[in-house]
Structure to design on (546 residues):
């Protein structure tokens, strides 16, 4: 139960200190620390990353959603293909999905040229991959549950009954 | 005939909250823990339904008592959540905020000279509302030693046995106190024994963090003497949409509706559409908001304990009610804290004399601001106390 609570809070803000998590729950700080260590050891907690709005920065960051279709044979499973693709650092997420295509792959790079080269030189030539459809991300409105707009200003009266 | 205010208006002083509002508004670095409304926006589904109703041109009056569909949805909600069974045709009226419902009840049931006992500390509108209706308010102080719950002893000490009516607000603004069933039972007995009408403001019912909210109207023999107030402002973060309701037996709702139909006509139509959608599809949003408030509540209580300001364990609404250190009045402390550290809180005596020596601290504010505000309060205690 405490695992679920700690996970929820870290999902909300991975930078909450263990002291603050303890204050928000019925747990002692040492229990929070132990819970996080256990979750890390068990491979439940896989990392802590910042949610970045790249549009708010000067530097360009190119991202693409890539649909992949594959054919399997007796020796090759989805897992085999995924393992091979996931090793590339350009691939930021990779999921097997239902529907018209097999894999939903997210790719990041510094330029359209770099991302295109990666798809055409590293992904498309993989023998099991029969088709790739690349969608460049033009604008992102929400990432990891966080809206990237200006947000709602707090326009409440500063003191009210 | 000049524009001289009527005596009953002159009898009511301006709200003590106003002055703090003015000081807080002058500065731009203030973190306000003085806000009595949610920091969340209305769930998007409810806002979307309101927009859709406008697009469809649903901008006429509704039935005086509110749209029938909404009254049905309210009837379903209150019976499911609080075991309150009311007939949508005869026993429910939809109002412009629970505040209007409270005002309607005072005007419908209080005769000139009637005494209305008010459990305090409590929301600032009850006393003025009783006075505007021609009644005489009788404060019933509750004590920190009782966790600010209303007791029969408090009612007796205040002389409420001779009153005509009793106003309750639990979960409570400003203390955060709740009244579990075991504590309400003797109050219900007292009301029956002394033939009191009960006005029960349950606007914070959803914001109950330990145990379940119980309504006094569910006790035997109480339904016929109780008006229950609730609304969408707190649970659904819809304060500005102004939508509440009252539950009472048919004759009582007829009486309140008579005042309402001449005064308000009907509650805002757009808000009624938002409320209908809120009841229909926003349970998860409420659960999420309540979860957030509960975490903040525990955070704030922990921090007050760490910095050495005694604070009883508030279990409802979104307020805690710590004690100011010895040698300070609540007003001085709140004012100096605002000037020194830019943290706004509300002195407890604004909510009745029994709130003296306390501060109302609202946690309807994001955790980042709460953390910073508590650090500033800690610094203030180190510097000045």
């Amino acid at each position: 139960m405490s695992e679920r609570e700690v996970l929820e809070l870290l999902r909300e803000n991975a930078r909450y200190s263990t002291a603050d998590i303890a204050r928000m729950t019925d747990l002692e700080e040492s229990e929070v620390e132990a819970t996080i260590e256990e979750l890390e050891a068990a491979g439940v907690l896989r990392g802590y990353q910042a949610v970045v709005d790249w549009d708010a920065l000067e530097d360009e960051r190119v991202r693409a959603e890539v649909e992949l279709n594959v054919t399997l044979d007796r020796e090759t499973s989805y897992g085999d293909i995924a393992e091979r693709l996931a090793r590339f650092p350009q691939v930021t997420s990779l999921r097997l999905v239902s529907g018209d295509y097999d894999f939903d792959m997210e790719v990041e790079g510094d330029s359209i040229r770099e991302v295109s080269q990666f798809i055409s030189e590293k992904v498309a030539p993989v023998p099991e991959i029969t088709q790739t459809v690349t969608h460049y991300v033009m604008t992102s409105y929400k990432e990891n549950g966080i809206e990237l707009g200006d947000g709602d200003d707090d326009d409440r009266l500063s003191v009210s009954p | 005939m000049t524009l001289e205010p009527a005596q009953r208006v002159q009898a009511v002083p301006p709200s003590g909250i106003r002055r703090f509002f003015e000081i807080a508004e002058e500065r731009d670095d203030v973190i306000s823990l003085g806000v009595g409304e949610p920091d969340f926006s209305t769930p998007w589904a409810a806002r979307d339904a309101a927009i859709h109703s406008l697009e469809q041109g649903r901008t006429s009056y509704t039935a005086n008592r509110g749209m029938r569909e909404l009254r049905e949805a309210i009837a379903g909600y209150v019976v499911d959540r609080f075991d309150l069974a009311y007939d949508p045709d005869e026993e429910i009226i939809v109002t412009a905020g629970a505040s209007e419902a409270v005002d309607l009840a005072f005007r419908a049931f209080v005769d000139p000279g009637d005494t209305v006992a008010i459990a305090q500390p409590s929301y600032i509108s009850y006393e003025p509302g009783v006075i505007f209706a021609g009644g005489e308010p009788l404060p019933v102080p509750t004590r920190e030693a009782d966790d600010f719950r209303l007791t029969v002893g408090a009612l007796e000490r205040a002389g409420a046995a001779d009153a005509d009516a009793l106003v309750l607000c639990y979960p409570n603004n400003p203390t955060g106190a709740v009244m579990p069933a075991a504590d309400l039972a003797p109050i219900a007995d007292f009301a029956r024994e002394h033939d009191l009408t009960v006005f029960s403001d349950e606007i914070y019912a959803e914001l109950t963090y330990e145990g379940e909210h119980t309504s006094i109207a569910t006790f035997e023999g109480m339904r016929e003497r109780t008006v229950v107030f609730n609304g969408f402002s707190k649970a659904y973060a819809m304060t500005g949409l102004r939508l509440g309701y009252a539950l009472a037996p048919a004759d009582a709702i007829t009486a309140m509706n008579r005042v309402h139909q001449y005064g308000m006509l009907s509650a805002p139509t757009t808000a009624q559409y938002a409320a209908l959608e809120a009841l229909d599809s926003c349970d998860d949003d409420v659960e999420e908001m309540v979860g957030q408030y509960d975490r903040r509540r525990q955070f704030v209580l922990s921090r007050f304990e760490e910095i050495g300001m005694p604070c009883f364990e508030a279990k409802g609404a979104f307020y805690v009610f710590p004690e100011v250190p010895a040698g300070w009045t609540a007003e001085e402390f709140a004012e100096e804290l605002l000037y020194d550290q830019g943290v706004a809180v509300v002195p407890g005596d604004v909510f009745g004399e029994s709130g003296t020596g306390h501060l109302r601290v609202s946690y309807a504010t994001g955790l980042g601001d709460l953390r910073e505000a508590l650090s500033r309060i800690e610094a203030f205690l180190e510097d000045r106390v």
